[in-house]
Specification:
heterodimer, A: about 270 residues, alpha/beta, Rossmann fold, four-stranded antiparallel sheet, 10 strands, B: about 280 residues, mainly alpha, MetI-like fold, 2 domains, two-stranded antiparallel ribbon, 11 helices
Chain lengths: ~270, ~280
C-alpha cells in the first residue's frame, strides 16, 4: 500500500500523501506523562527529524510507532495513530507483522551475540524465509547496501561482537533492512558513534532512502545532521513537566523561518 | 607528625599486611592438607582393577565398579529431573513475573527456604514420598529424585540470575524485528543464560555427589551392580561413609574412593568451564 508513490524524484515533497497520521497521542509511565497531545502527519517517502532536548519524550514517541511501548512496564499510550487504513494502537494489531513493516534502529548498536551472518539470518528464518539460498542472497544484498560486505565477507561466521561500533550499527541497519520494511524508525542512530562512523551511517540513511523509498523517522540531538538530511522536522520540548510537540513543518521552513520562539532559540543554540 | 609516631604507623601497616596474608594462607593450607592426605592415602589404591571390579569383603577388598555405576545413575536421574524444571521455573521468574509480582516473590522465597533445609530432611521426605507413597522403594530412582529436589533451588536461582543478566536491549531489538517471545527465549536468552546454568549445575552436582544423608534413606546401601533404576544402589559418598565408619580395616579403600570422588568433581568443574567458555566466546 505504501509503495504506490515510486517516482518521488519528480514530485515535490509537499505533494506527498500523509502516511502516518498521529492524533492526540499521549504516553505516560506510571501516570507520569512523558509527552502529551501530539498531533501531526508524516508524509510518505520522507525523512522526518524529531529534535529536542533530553527527556522531552522523543524516544518514547518513537516506541509508539512500532508498539515497542507494549514491552515497557507501566507504560500507557492513548490517542490515535493511523497507518493507511489501520489504527496502530488497536489491541487487535498483529505486532509481529507490524514490526516487520516498521524497522527500528536503536541508539546503542546491539547486534545479537551470534555470528555476523546469523544476526541477519535469524530474523529472516523467524519470518518464514525457508530457502537457505534465498537467505544467503539477502545477507549479501543487505550487507552490500550498508557497505559492510567487502569488510566482512571473509568472516561471516565470526562473532558480531568483534565488529567496531560503526560496523555494529551498520550490521543492525542491515538486519532491519533484510526484512524489507517500509518505514524505518531511528533513535539517535549516530550519537554513540565516532564522527567518521557517524558520517558513514548518515550517508547510508540518505542513500538507502532514495534507493528503497523508505519513510524514515529519525530522533536526533544533532541539529546539523537533521538539517542535512531531513525533509520535515519537529521540535519536542518539555512544558510543565511534560513533553509536547512545539512545532512541525518542512525542514526549510523549520530551520530558516521557524514560527515558534522556542524553535528559534533552540536552532540558534540559545536554548536546549 | 613526629618520626616516632610515623614509624609506629608503618609497623601497624606491616602487621595488618601479615594478618591479611595469613588468613587466606591458613585456609589454603587446610585445603591442601586435606587434599594431600587423600592423595597420599588413596593414590596407592587406584588402579584399573579398582575401578572395574566388585567390592569384596564388605568393601575392604576389591573395587568400586557397581558404586561408580550407581553414582552416575543417581546423578543422571537427578539431572534429567531437575534441569528441565529449573529452566522452566527460571524462565517464569525472570521473564514472566515482574520483580514485585506476589507469585514470583512467593516462589523465590520458597526456593530460599528450600535451599537452607538440611539434607537429612530431604532424605526423610524422599523416603516418605518417593520410596513409600509413590512405591519406588529404596532405589536409584528415589535417590536421584530426592537429590533433584535438593539441587532445584541452586539451579533455578543461578539460571534466573543468568537470564536477568542478559541486557534488556536484546529483548527490545528482538521484538523490534518482529521476533516472537518464544524464539527470543530459545535462540537468544537461553544461550546467553547458559553460563549461569552451568555454574548452577556445577554447584548442584557438587552438592549432589557429596550427599550421603539424603541418599541413605532413599537409594539405599546395597553395593551390588544395579540392573535397573528401581534397584537399590550405593553412591560413592555413602561407600566412603560406610567404609570409614562401619567397616574396620576399610580405610585404605575409603581413601581410594574419596580420591575418585574428588577427581570426578574436578572433571565436572573442567567440563563446565570448557562449555562456559565455548558459549561465551560470542560475547567478547
Amino acid at each position: 500500500m505504501t509503495k504506490s508513490i515510486t517516482n518521488n524524484s519528480q514530485s515535490s515533497i509537499q505533494d506527498l500523501q500523509p502516511l502516518i497520521q498521529i492524533q492526540q497521542l499521549s504516553l505516560s509511565y506510571k501516570n507520569k506523562p512523558a509527552f502529551q497531545d501530539v498531533t501531526f502527519s508524516i508524509p510518505q517517502n520522507s525523512i522526518t527529524a524529531i529534535v529536542g532536548p533530553s527527556g522531552c519524550g522523543k524516544s518514547s514517541f518513537l516506541t509508539c510507532l512500532n508498539r515497542l511501548s507494549d514491552l515497557i512496564p507501566n507504560c500507557q499510550v492513548s490517542g490515535h495513530i493511523q497507518l493507511g487504513t489501520v489504527n496502530l494502537l488497536s489491541p487487535k494489531i498483529n505486532t509481529t507483522a507490524l514490526r516487520r513493516r516498521i524497522g527500528m534502529i536503536f541508539q546503542k548498536p546491539n547486534p545479537f551475540p551470534m555470528s555476523i551472518k546469523k544476526n541477519i539470518v535469524f530474523p529472516l528464518k523467524e519470518h518464514g524465509f525457508a530457502n537457505a539460498q534465498e537467505r544467503e542472497q539477502i545477507v549479501e544484498e543487505v550487507l552490500t547496501d550498508v557497505g559492510l560486505w567487502s569488510e566482512v565477507k571473509n568472516r561471516l561466521e565470526d562473532s558480531a561482537m568483534s565488529l567496531s561500533g560503526g560496523q555494529k550499527q551498520r550490521l543492525c541497519l542491515a538486519r532491519a533492512l533484510a526484512l524489507k520494511p517500509e518505514i524505518l524508525l531511528m533513535d539517535e542512530p549516530c550519537s554513540a558513534l565516532d564522527p567518521i562512523s557517524s558520517g558513514i551511517v548518515e550517508d547510508l540513511i540518505v542513500r538507502l532512502r532514495h534507493k528503497y523509498h523508505y519513510t524514515i523517522i529519525i530522533v536526533t540531538h544533532n541539529l546539523a545532521q537533521a538539517k542535512r538530511i531531513a525533509d520535515y522536522a519537529g521540535l519536542f520540548w518539555v512544558e510543565e513537566g511534560c513533553g509536547r510537540l512545539i512545532e512541525f513543518g518542512t525542514a526549510t521552513q523549520f530551520f530558516n523561518a521557524p514560527e515558534h520562539e522556542l524553535t528559534k532559540a533552540y536552532i540558534q543554540g540559545t536554548k536546549g | 607528625m613526629s618520626r616516632k609516631a610515623s614509624s609506629k604507623l608503618i609497623n601497624l601497616d606491616q602487621l595488618f599486611k601479615v594478618v591479611i596474608w595469613l588468613i587466606p594462607l591458613s585456609i589454603t593450607a587446610i585445603f591442601i592438607w586435606i587434599l594431600s592426605d587423600i592423595v597420599i592415602g588413596g593414590i596407592g589404591q587406584i588402579s584399573w582393577a579398582f575401578l572395574t571390579t566388585n567390592p569384596l569383603d564388605a568393601g575392604r577388598d576389591g573395587g568400586i565398579a557397581p558404586i561408580l555405576v550407581s553414582t552416575f545413575l543417581i546423578l543422571a536421574v537427578c539431572l534429567v529431573a531437575s534441569v528441565p524444571i529449573s529452566i522452566g521455573t527460571a524462565i517464569l521468574l525472570a521473564e514472566f513475573t515482574p520483580n514485585q509480582n506476589w507469585f514470583g516473590r512467593l516462589v523465590r522465597r520458597s526456593l530460599d527456604v528450600l535451599a537452607g533445609v538440611p539434607s537429612i530432611v530431604f532424605g526423610l521426605f524422599g523416603n516418605a514420598f518417593f520410596a513409600q507413597t509413590l512405591g519406588l522403594g529404596f532405589s536409584i530412582l528415589s535417590g536421584g529424585l530426592t537429590l533433584a529436589c535438593m539441587v532445584l533451588p541452586i539451579l533455578i536461582r543461578s539460571t534466573e540470575a543468568g537470564l536477568r543478566a542478559v541486557p534488556q536491549e536484546y529483548r527490545l531489538n528482538s521484538a523490534a524485528l518482529g521476533i516472537s517471545k518464544t524464539s527470543t527465549l530459545w535462540h537468544l536468552l537461553l544461550p546467553a543464560a547458559t553460563p549461569g546454568l552451568l555454574v548452577g549445575l556445577v554447584l548442584g552436582l557438587g552438592r549432589a555427589i557429596a550427599e550421603t544423608a539424603a541418599l541413605i534413606f532413599t537409594s539405599g546401601y546395597v553395593d551390588r551392580m544395579p540392573t535397573s533404576l528401581l534397584d537399590s544402589g550405593r553412591s560413592l559418598s555413602i561407600h566412603i561413609f560406610d567404609l570409614s565408619m562401619n567397616v574396620s580395616g576399610g580405610d585404605s579403600n575409603a581413601y581410594g574412593s574419596a580420591l575418585i570422588l574428588i577427581l570426578i568433581l574436578l572433571i565436572i568443574n573442567a567440563i563446565a568451564a570448557w562449555l562456559g567458555s565455548k558459549y561465551n566466546y560470542l560475547y567478547d
